[in-house]
Design a protein that fits this description.
Length: 59
């Protein structure tokens, strides 16, 4: 499953749900204003891979 970061359109998971069931956007899980560590921890706890265009995504 995939977790899309803020710098990717919230439409991405909607468009890819058939290929990647259960993918989510950070806005869907109340992480829209979360820092990278919070996003990382959520992804780790929920077995999600993070998709981001953020070159400085840091944990």
């Amino acid at each position: 499953m995939l977790l899309f970061d803020n710098n990717i359109s919230p439409e991405a998971p909607v468009q890819l749900v058939e290929l990647f069931e259960g993918c989510k956007h950070v806005l869907e899980v109340n992480l829209g204003s979360a820092d990278d560590v919070e996003v990382w921890n959520y992804a780790k706890e929920n077995n999600l891979a993070i998709i981001s265009k953020d070159k400085d995504f840091y944990i």
